[in-house]
């Protein structure tokens, strides 16, 4: 059975690369850590991989803005290599800081005459948000989110941990266009109590943690083969990763694992 090779891109400040590599390995892929300097020296390295993943963390300390410096390196030195990678019908995933990089490099949403159509900026709360959230998925277009997931046909739970995760479109027309095109594939769900816990306790799930327009938590490109999301799927691979796992119906795996399984399965 074919095992796709996964390029886990690292930069100074990246700190979720080990967990992300483990997630792809658990899903059946063959991950390899590649430092940005190595890729800048040899852009053709991408030819040997089927999946490119930019994991979470604080690349270059998030100086200037979250993901901005790494995005600039990609935009100005690796654009042709990434374009060939994408044209070859390969997959690209950006998680948290990786989502910020994908947006600000133009990989996820192509620039228009006014520049980038959308960005990720400071949370409305003005502080770092670290919590579990309930999400609704739309896997009709996006390869990574093809369902159903173990939490339900179109619902998953994942943790978030970010300070600059608020999705903002340049204008309402762009947001509407992305919505109509089916590219707003992951959204935060309204807070509600889950009474399904076996001991009868109610579990609260927070609202939109950052104030994103349209409750957007993840966006894909028009092909569905590039996904950027703020939540961390690599942190929910096993049922026991969830803080309420003893009080909820038992799952075989965590919701996040399927995202990586979908990516690996795409090449099978």
Largest sheet: 9 strands, mixed
Tell me the strand order in the biggest sheet. 2-1-3-4-13-12-9-6-7
Question: Percent of residues in beta strands?
Answer: 15-25%
CATH H-level superfamily title: Class I glutamine amidotransferase (GATase) domain
Structural class by SSE content: alpha/beta
Number of helices: 7
Task: Give an account of the 3D structure.
The chain is 24% helix and 24% strand. It has 268 residues and is an alpha/beta fold. The chain is globular, with a radius of gyration of 18 Å.
Task: Sum this structure up briefly.
This protein is α/β, with parallel strands linked by helices. The protein has seven helices and 13 strands.
Which terms would index this structure?
single chain, 268 residues, alpha/beta, Rossmann fold, nine-stranded mixed sheet
């Amino acid at each position: 059975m074919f095992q796709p090779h996964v390029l886990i891109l690292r930069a100074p400040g990246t700190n979720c690369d080990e967990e992300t590599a483990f997630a792809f390995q658990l899903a059946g892929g063959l991950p390899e850590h590649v430092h940005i300097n190595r890729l800048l020296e040899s852009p053709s390295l991408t030819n040997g991989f089927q999946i490119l993943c930019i994991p979470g963390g604080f690349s270059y300390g998030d100086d200037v803005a979250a993901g901005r410096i790494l995005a600039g390196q990609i935009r100005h030195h690796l654009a042709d290599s990434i374009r060939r990678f994408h044209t070859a019908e390969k997959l690209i995933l950006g998680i948290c800081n990786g989502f910020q990089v994908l947006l600000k490099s133009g990989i996820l949403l192509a620039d228009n005459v006014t520049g980038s159509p959308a960005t990720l900026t400071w949370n409305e709360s003005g502080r770092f948000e670290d919590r579990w959230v309930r999400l609704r998925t739309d896997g009709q277009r996006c390869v990574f989110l093809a369902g159903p997931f173990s939490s339900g046909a179109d619902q998953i739970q994942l943790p978030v941990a970010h300070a600059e995760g608020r999705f903002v479109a340049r204008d309402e027309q762009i947001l509407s266009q992305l919505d109509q095109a089916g590219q707003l594939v992951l959204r935060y769900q309204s807070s509600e109590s889950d009474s399904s816990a076996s001991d009868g306790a109610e579990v609260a799930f927070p609202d939109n943690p950052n104030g994103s327009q349209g409750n957007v938590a993840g966006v894909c490109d028009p092909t569905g083969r590039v996904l950027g999301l703020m939540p961390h799927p690599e942190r929910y691979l096993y049922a026991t990763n969830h803080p309420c796992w003893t009080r909820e119906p038992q799952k075989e795996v965590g919701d996040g694992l399927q995202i990586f399984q979908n990516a690996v399965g795409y090449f099978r």
